[in-house]
Amino acid sequence: MDSHEPQPASSLPEKKEKWTSGDAYEIWMARWSRLLAAEFLPWLGVHAGMRWLDVCCGTGVLTQAILDNCRSASVVGVDRSPPQIEYARQHRASPQAEYQVADATALPFAEEDFDACVCGLGLNFISDSGLALREMKRVTRSGGTVAAYVWEYSGQTRFLREFWDAAIAVDPEAAQFDQGRRFPICTPEGLRAAFDDAIPGDVEVRPLDITTRFANFDDYWQPFLLGQGSGPTYLAARNETTRSAIRERLRASLPQNADGSIVLAARALAVGATRL
Questions:
Q1: Are strands 114-120 and 51-55 parallel, antiparallel or unpaired?
Q2: Tens of pLDDT along 40-98?
Q3: What secondary structure does DSSP assign to 40-90, as a single string?
Q4: Which of 8, 50, 54, 233 is in Cβ range 3.0-4.6 Å of 115 for a Cys bridge?
Q5: In angstroms, rounded to a whole number, what is the distance separating the alpha carbons of residues 270 and 65?
């Protein structure tokens, strides 16, 4: 099959992303979430001694950052993926941390059980983000903080945007996986509207800008072969001809320094509100 011809729709997986490996997620996205957490948490300004809930905690990157930087009384991390929760339990255990398998749209906690409820790089992957936000509000005390951050997929997160632009040029069906097209919530307007609807009040949205650095092209490309997240899930369903065409298009288009390194800007959007 010519690499520029779309493959049959039946070859596309029903789910647009998989989250089945803690080890793979650490390589794919955790290193960037760690940098975002370092910008996100000081902005929230939550006082010491608070009880936190980390929704869609994955492998516990944001949970660990809360423990390390916020002098929290305790943190509970919840996620629907048992393998990621198991990874968090094994690698980010702490007397102040607890990890549970749970659905963000039906949190297993009492009303006003937490002082702060956050979600890092997960809100747009929840099937009903509005219901999840209402659940986050429910379990947060009056005067507490509800906040999240998501990638700004449509243009400012270049390590992902460059991939999707190349993939769509080779295989137009890649557009079905492109988060920039799939997730209108991942814009300043989308985030504000979602929070205004679920948690009306003093909603604030701001950018979180980081730099993603890759030692060479292989360092950039290999995480896309791990099967975790939208791009890797899409790529795993393509044949080798299509994968190779996308790889070589990226190799030619990505800006590389004299030493072969690749440095790309990335922007996430943070949103926060006080629970009235």
A1: parallel
A2: 999 999 999 999 999 999 999 999 999 999 999 999 999 999 999 999 999 999 999 99
A3: HHHHH-PPTT-EEEEET-TTTHHHHHHHHHS--SEEEEEES-HHHHHHHHH
A4: 50
A5: 16
